[in-house]
């Protein structure tokens, strides 16, 4: 079990603290690192302003408390109407609940030199003096004798929040600071104008694959977890060029992937217009126990899978399948892969799904196929972005999310592309269009990189054949 706050945890706590603000979490104290010693807690946490205390117990439950006032060692209570207790997970399952102060802020926290973090009188007293580690956990010597006395626990109790014990893997205290939008964008300053939208749209519309390869359309493979927004990304791009909201690809939320067939979607410029020189190839969504396997992704990358091939989890794709392309050409192959990740849940991607993605990346790297990440649902990451998409590159939370995805995926930050798909909108939005078009233009540039490498290989092969003939 991870014993530090995930971004999802921080986002939830930030909303509870003040839903109109972003907050920066800075780790001040961690008992597995600093020792479970009350004076150490106070030396690191006193007079530091608002803090969050988080406990991770041996039953995979995560709970704690927030206070807007500073810790102290005065042997007295502090008033804080903003203080609250909370639980984030119970037995490893997300169960977020906030328990506000019900006494008008009186007895919100208790500061004493011999006490660890203590809330109420005492709803949650974490520990006293020194607690030594026992095996893999700390058997805290505090108590929750008055749980629900100062804070409104809404029918919850010591057992339903803390599993009836105070044996923890870790306890952390974070300082909380309001985080403003950045003064300068963390990526080039995008021009959010109608003129710029038309410029980028025209570059995409006039795109042509590298000559010399007998290739009419670049192929972009969309891969991602169920519900991340693969089909919605195609619908968004399609909407931009159709001039109205389109739902050509089946998209939405379901327990299992709504996409069951391999589709090589074309985008047309306007109603009954010409097909543009790329295809967005949609696949079934990844799940822990379903989705593309290693053999299927290999066949897709090599161009063996025909359009509209229907995946069957019970019957893996093989060369004997109906329509299997036995001798694929450059036009059939994939030239760039876009992993589609839900930006609001990147911290909780199932381990098995991440293992599948890493295995796929290995096969892509072996073939020299470039990869990007389309980071979707960015309006759920940050309140400012939800209110105004053009703030995306000024948001420190968005920047942190991009940095984390870059590290997890092993890709440069420039390969992580934030987008907002059309979901609830009924009319086109200029800022959504610009962000989506910028992502597609970047993807097409990466596809060209792959084609340049392929052309170099072909030309090198020709030179080698000429040398062989000359020797003979």
TrEMBL record:
Transmembrane segments: none
SUPFAM superfamilies assigned to the protein according to its UniProt record, in alphabetical order: P-loop containing nucleoside triphosphate hydrolases
InterPro entries for this protein: P-loop_NTPase (IPR027417), TLDc_dom (IPR006571)
Chain ranges of the TLDc domain: 3-177
UniProt-listed SMART domains: TLDc
Name of one Pfam family that matches: TLD
Family: Belongs to the IFI44 family.
Family matches, as PANTHER family: INTERFERON-INDUCED PROTEIN 44, VWFA DOMAIN-CONTAINING PROTEIN-RELATED
Protein known as: Interferon-induced protein 44
Organism: Mizuhopecten yessoensis
Lineage start: Eukaryota, Metazoa, Spiralia, Lophotrochozoa, Mollusca
